[in-house]
């Protein structure tokens, strides 16, 4: 009898353990966004309609309590957020903080688009990605981070390039678009697709220590083209990998974007239509500018639009829809040498001048020994101290060399664009402003040097 | 004769790099028979302030595409653009559009 009681108790205990394990498993699955898994999209597919919440659950009330207390938002605003879908174009320095705050605030659906993968040089500003995400699709990395923050938000990661072929189909499926991209063609493409689909566009940009923000195509206000009917000449556009950017600057601008998206989505409305907010982070100064209204003559949102469907934006802007650097071809082959050829010149101790034409701030990051630094801008300006310095080095070299041969000057920069421009400037100066020299460009610059000659040389 | 016009000029968004990195310039346009307008100011800037590569700042008789001009914190499009007649103590900002993200 006593034995039987013991055995039954043991069996019961066993079953209770099983039940508890099953309960745990169920709770975990439920926690994980109603059992939904993130699926990386490589193409645009139709989405099911977003229903939103009919009412707030107790969980919702607790989670959003601090913003529910704001009369500006309230329960109605919170429910509106849950009914809104937002497409974030670009999961970089702007897109990361934007997506983070939208998810935290309880936006209904978040489309996260980026064609790129996470790199080490992204992490100082693209704060949703971690060290372990390097090499992973940015869209997926961002979606996973956001999902950890708020599993009730539906996240759709798109690992694809926005193109004239897919943009309209994608953007039509969202209520609001946030432009967090990093290049001019994409900015025109997103604008035109938003105008054609009647979607408000919250647009921000950042570079160095400055940021800009405007809401386009909203409540009868102007669109991007009303302000910028003609794209800038490609050579005047600086990207973050050339010009640099302090991480917190896109961070601030992305937060402002989140603010305006939340105001539009919740029903409060944005006050940034026909306004440009500018941030000068160096002087920590904000400026709000009254912009022109919607332009009757605008090519896409005007009275007689010439752009009635999406066009080829790379051709329109004369540049690629990426922030990768362009490769210039200004010189003929006999004006250039490869890094391998330069290596053998060094190995043979052939007398020459190695002229590094990068700005001082970059030379301080890394440089080749024995290089002479004169920035391209100083050469272009014919800065007298620098010309004198160059002339001194040319004279010294001439003394070391036998015969009448021209002293050799090899020109170097980061990736071989500025060095080509410098060669052109130096060839003009040769024989007049300085003694006659034989100038050659080192193809591909320090990037090529690090890749092909010295893998220990730092890349930036 | 129109009296000299004192202006506060500002360059930003990278446009300051064409002016030796200096963002703010306090300038005085000399007295002349006609009132100064924006068109003349652009010529004056080219002759007196612009150090390098004018094609990165002007195109034809206006600024190049991608530079926004603000007069007293308003888009110059609202102020008459090139024909706006400059007043003493006006603030004129030339801001290059940013595209990074």
UniProtKB/TrEMBL annotation, chain A:
ATP binds at residues 93, 114, 121-125, 138, 182-183. The gene is MOCS3. Residues 348-458 form the Rhodanese domain. Its EC number is 2.7.7.80, 2.8.1.11. The keyword Cell wall biogenesis/degradation does not apply. The active site is at residues 240, 413. Disulfide bonds join 317-325. It comes from the Eukaryota. One of its GO terms (biological process) is protein urmylation. GO terms for cellular component: cytosol. Pathway: tRNA modification; 5-methoxycarbonylmethyl-2-thiouridine-tRNA biosynthesis; Cofactor biosynthesis; molybdopterin biosynthesis. This is Adenylyltransferase and sulfurtransferase MOCS3. Keywords: ATP-binding, Cytoplasm, Disulfide bond, Metal-binding, Molybdenum cofactor biosynthesis, Multifunctional enzyme, Nucleotide-binding, Transferase, tRNA processing, Zinc. It comes from Kryptolebias marmoratus. HAMAP family: MOCS3_Uba4. Zn(2+) binds at residues 223, 226, 298, 301. Pfam families: Rhodanese (PF00581), ThiF (PF00899). Its cofactor is Zn(2+). The keyword ATP-binding applies.
From TrEMBL, chain B:
C-terminal thiocarboxylation occurs in 2 steps, it is first acyl-adenylated (-COAMP) via the hesA/moeB/thiF part of MOCS3, then thiocarboxylated (-COSH) via the rhodanese domain of MOCS3. Pathway: tRNA modification; 5-methoxycarbonylmethyl-2-thiouridine-tRNA biosynthesis. InterPro entries: Beta-grasp_dom_sf, Mopterin_synth/thiamin_S_b, Urm1. There is a cross-link at residue 101 (Glycyl lysine isopeptide (Gly-Lys) (interchain with K-? in acceptor proteins)). The modification 1-thioglycine is found at residue 101. It is found in: Cytoplasm. Gene3D superfamilies: 3.10.20.30. GO terms for biological process: protein urmylation; tRNA thio-modification; tRNA wobble uridine modification. The keyword tRNA processing applies. Signal peptide: none annotated. One of its GO terms (cellular component) is cytosol. Keywords: Cytoplasm, Isopeptide bond, tRNA processing, Ubl conjugation pathway. Belongs to the URM1 family. Acts as a sulfur carrier required for 2-thiolation of mcm(5)S(2)U at tRNA wobble positions of cytosolic tRNA(Lys), tRNA(Glu) and tRNA(Gln). Serves as sulfur donor in tRNA 2-thiolation reaction by being thiocarboxylated (-COSH) at its C-terminus by MOCS3. The sulfur is then transferred to tRNA to form 2-thiolation of mcm(5)S(2)U. Also acts as a ubiquitin-like protein (UBL) that is covalently conjugated via an isopeptide bond to lysine residues of target proteins. This is Ubiquitin-related modifier 1. It comes from Kryptolebias marmoratus. The lineage of its organism: Eukaryota, Metazoa, Chordata, Craniata, Vertebrata.
């Amino acid at each position: 009898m006593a034995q039987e009681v013991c055995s039954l108790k043991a069996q019961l205990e066993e079953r209770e353990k099983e039940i508890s394990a099953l309960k745990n498993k169920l709770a975990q699955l439920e926690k994980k966004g109603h059992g939904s898994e993130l699926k990386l999209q490589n193409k645009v597919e139709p989405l099911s309609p977003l229903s939103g919440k009919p009412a707030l659950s107790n969980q919702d009330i607790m989670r959003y309590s601090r913003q529910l207390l704001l009369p500006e938002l309230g329960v109605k605003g919170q429910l509106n957020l849950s009914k809104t879908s937002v497409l974030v174009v670009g999961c970089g320095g702007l897109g990361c903080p934007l997506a983070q705050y939208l998810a935290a605030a309880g936006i209904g659906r978040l489309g996260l688009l980026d064609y790129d993968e996470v790199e080490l040089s992204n992490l100082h500003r693209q704060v949703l990605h971690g060290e372990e995400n390097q090499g992973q699709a940015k869209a997926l990395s961002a979606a996973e981070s956001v999902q950890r923050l708020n599993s009730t938000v539906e996240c759709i990661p798109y690992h694809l390039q926005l193109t004239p072929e897919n943009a309209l189909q994608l953007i039509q499926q969202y209520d609001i678009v946030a432009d967090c991209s990093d290049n001019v063609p994409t900015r025109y493409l997103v604008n035109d697709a938003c105008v054609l689909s009647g979607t408000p566009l919250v647009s921000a940009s950042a570079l160095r220590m400055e940021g800009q923000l405007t809401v386009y195509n909203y409540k009868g206000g102007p669109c991007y083209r009303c302000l910028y009917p003609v794209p800038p000449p490609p050579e005047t556009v600086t990207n973050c990998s050339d010009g640099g950017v302090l991480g917190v600057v896109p961070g601030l601008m992305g937060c402002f974007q989140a603010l305006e998206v939340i105001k539009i989505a919740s029903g409060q409305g944005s006050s940034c239509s026909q306004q440009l907010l500018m941030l000068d982070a160096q002087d920590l100064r904000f400026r709000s500018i009254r912009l022109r209204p919607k332009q009757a003559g605008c090519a896409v949102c005007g009275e007689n639009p010439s752009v009635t469907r999406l066009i080829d934006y790379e051709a329109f802007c004369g540049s690629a829809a990426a922030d990768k650097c362009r490769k210039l071809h200004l010189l003929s082959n006999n004006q250039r040498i490869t890094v391998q050829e330069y290596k053998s010149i060094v190995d043979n101790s052939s007398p020459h001048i190695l002229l590094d034409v990068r700005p001082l701030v970059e030379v301080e990051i890394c440089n080749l020994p024995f290089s002479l630094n004169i920035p391209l801008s100083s050469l272009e300006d014919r800065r007298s101290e620098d010309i004198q310095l160059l002339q001194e080095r040319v004279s010294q070299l001439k003394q070391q060399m036998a015969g009448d041969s021209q002293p050799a000057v090899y020109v170097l920069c980061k990736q071989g664009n500025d060095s080509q421009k410098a060669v052109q400037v130096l060839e003009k100066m040769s024989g007049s402003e300085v003694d006659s020299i034989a100038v050659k460009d080192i193809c591909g610059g320090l990037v090529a040097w690090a890749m092909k000659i010295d893998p220990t040389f730092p890349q930036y | 004769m129109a009296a000299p016009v004192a202006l506060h000029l500002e360059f930003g968004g990278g446009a300051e790099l064409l002016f030796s990195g200096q963002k703010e310039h306090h300038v005085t346009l000399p007295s002349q028979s006609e009132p100064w307008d924006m068109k003349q100011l652009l010529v004056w800037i080219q002759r007196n302030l612009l150090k390098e590569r004018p094609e990165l700042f002007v195109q034809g008789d206006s600024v190049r595409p991608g530079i926004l001009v603000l007069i007293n914190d308003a888009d110059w499009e609202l102020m008459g653009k090139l024909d706006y007649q400059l007043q003493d103590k006006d603030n004129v900002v030339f801001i290059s559009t940013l595209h990074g993200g």
